[in-house]
Write a sequence for this structure.
């Protein structure tokens, strides 16, 4: 099969198109012929080695965290899927690699594709959908009437999270540029802040939850818009000790993550705010719940551009510009 691989960790490093053997199935795996995949900033960060401490991939490895396609083989232990099923998934860490023609994925990470979406649309959903679901439903437990601030509303996570928060009954605020105001309003944003001309810290107050996806300065400012008892969830860091515990990291790495997050955790505690770092995990059953919301018309995908498989490197470079609205998708096979 053809696949785009990273030969070594390198800032802005190039991807190399390689011919590799078809993935081998474990008993609980399905082999998916990839019809479409999508690009995330996470791909750039993994390629550049930013997560080497917690995701020590050994080059050469295949990038890619989103997949939509067709099951072509099933392992002996597979019970939920059969050959011919149209599925979508975010493969679990250490088994990613969707910038390819085939991938073997544990069936626990897979769900049937929403029947009202194309393969390209479905491929745009898994990583951002699971991130938003785990932040707002699982960790944040958002309830009707609460106020939720979602940063970068026109980005991949933002476009999904706005719709989900609105479905959960929240009043939703977001930041974006003037060019994307109508887009985020159409997704359900109630309060829209132009980050180029307005300071969200001066506009917002008394919020129940903030989903932070920006830099450390924005993270610290986010504490100021939350009410006492509110929650700050960050998907851009810094990782906290609870995350280190979940990963089972060694004592040295636990200490490193403890020190990285100590400042924001201390300030949050002083203000009576809960801080947590979220690094989403693969979860097929949650993707099934998300598929039902999509089929009901509650959530729609937002796809900015489609790139052909051979232009995967160009797609990654485009995402790195930060100008994409929603997701950037790569079509792999017809």
């Amino acid at each position: 099969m053809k696949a785009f691989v990273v030969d070594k960790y390198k800032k802005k490093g190039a991807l190399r198109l390689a011919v590799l053997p078809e993935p081998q199935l474990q008993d609980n795996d399905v082999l998916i012929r990839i019809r479409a995949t999508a690009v995330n900033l996470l791909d750039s960060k993994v390629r550049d080695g930013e997560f080497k401490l917690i995701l020590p991939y050994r080059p050469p490895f295949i990038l890619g965290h989103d997949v939509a396609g067709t099951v072509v083989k099933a392992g002996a232990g597979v019970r939920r899927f059969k050959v011919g099923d149209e599925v979508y998934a975010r493969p679990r860490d250490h088994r990613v690699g969707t910038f390819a023609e085939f991938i073997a994925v544990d069936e626990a990470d897979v769900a049937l594709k929403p029947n009202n979406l194309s393969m390209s649309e479905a491929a745009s959903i898994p990583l951002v959908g699971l991130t938003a679901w785990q932040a707002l439903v699982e960790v944040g437990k958002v309830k009707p009437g609460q106020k939720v601030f979602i940063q970068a509303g026109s980005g991949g996570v933002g476009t999904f999270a706005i719709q989900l928060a609105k479905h959960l009954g929240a009043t939703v605020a977001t930041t974006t540029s003037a060019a994307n105001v109508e887009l985020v309003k159409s997704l359900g944003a109630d309060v829209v802040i132009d980050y180029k001309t307005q300071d969200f810290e001066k506009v917002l107050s008394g919020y129940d939850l903030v989903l932070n996806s920006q830099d450390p300065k924005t993270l610290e400012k986010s504490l100021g818009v939350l009410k006492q008892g509110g929650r700050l969830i960050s998907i851009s860091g810094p990782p906290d000790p609870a995350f280190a515990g979940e990963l089972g990291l060694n004592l040295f790495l636990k200490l490193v993550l403890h020190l990285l997050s100590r400042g924001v955790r201390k300030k949050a505690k002083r203000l009576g705010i809960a801080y947590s770092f979220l690094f989403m995990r693969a979860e097929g059953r949650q993707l099934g719940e998300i598929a039902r919301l999509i089929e009901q018309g509650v959530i729609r995908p937002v796809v900015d551009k489609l790139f052909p498989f051979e232009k995967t490197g160009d797609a990654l470079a485009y995402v790195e510009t930060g100008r994409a609205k929603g997701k950037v998708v790569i079509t792999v096979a017809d």
Notes: The longest strand covers residues 29-39.
